[in-house]
């Protein structure tokens, strides 16, 4: 699939006009239209409603929009990584994490490692637990952080290793505007009529299933919703629009001004473990050093 066609598609979707895109890209309107016709032919779907003065996306076009953006973003990220990586024989690590919370564990370990290996080159990616696990399995990443919460981070037959590096309890974030924030623990009965959020940068069946497995008080999976940024989740919680799951011990201290973090009353199923995933029997000396930094050994 031609990346230039996808980039043009995204611009046409944004501006709703072949002419505006042609003026921005200094090409003819006919060339832009031809690119979109070729893309539609390749996909065998109609992406646009073509009016006299307006171009709009069809239902298939709207469906394809996010996928096209992901493809372009991944391509540009890979291109940036290639250009940033020195071609000389310097040590290289490719690592990943799944959220803004546990990334501080990875940051601390990488910072320590860089002090000891100044010429270390790094490729750092954020993604869903599923993508990270697959990337470590197929060798696209050397190491990634994942979570064991409600269900194991890896299936029993996984060819890679999961090593625990941090253990704590999942708590519920409640706005200090809400009288419930003054309690020492949040009663389960108060969780059945309020929207509950969890944070994941990508759609993650793994995380949704983990939260549902650890929260028997959730009677309907539609009561729990994913948000794609930690900042958005925290704003909604702080303004008392929702409750949200937070990993105790990995929440920034300055967030406490607006949000109280409460354990769920009479619930012993909220323990979680951050685990580092990597291929067993690795001979990568720098990777072994990073694992040592993460485990404190």
Automatic annotation (TrEMBL):
PROSITE patterns in the record: HTH_LYSR
UniProt keyword Transcription, yes or no: yes
InterPro entries xref list: LysR_HTH_N, LysR_subst-bd, WH-like_DNA-bd_sf, WH_DNA-bd_sf
Key words of the record: DNA-binding, Transcription, Transcription regulation
Coiled coil, from the record: none
Domain HTH lysR-type: 1-58
The keyword Transcription is annotated on this UniProt entry: yes
GO molecular-function terms, A-Z: DNA binding; DNA-binding transcription factor activity
Source domain of life: Bacteria
Pfam name, any one: HTH_1
Listed GO CC annotations: protein-DNA complex
Family statement: Belongs to the LysR transcriptional regulatory family.
Name recorded for this polypeptide: LysR family transcriptional regulator
Organism: Secundilactobacillus collinoides
